[in-house]
Request: fold
Amino acid sequence: MVIYVDIDDTIADYDIKDSPTDYYKARPIAINIDKINKLYDEGNTIVYYTARGSVNTDSREEYTLLTKKQLSEWGAKYHKLSVGEKPAYDLLICDKSKRIEEL
Reply:
């Protein structure tokens, strides 16, 4: 399977007082990273994607470098990273969606 995984609030957490979200202060959610790594180890293709840089496209390259560094430091296994190409939305309705808590 090809599995797209959102980063922020799925495998990255923030201090509640960070508003708007400060990506540099992201903390890994280890239990969720472990779940995704298991899917990777089972032979699935993992694509991490994020809306970081989709609103302010001038920051896209900076956020790409930051996100690659974070994923590496957090031990997140993946095949591809997509930064700034995910639309910024408040709600996704999709017949194939699954919350991380369901894994």
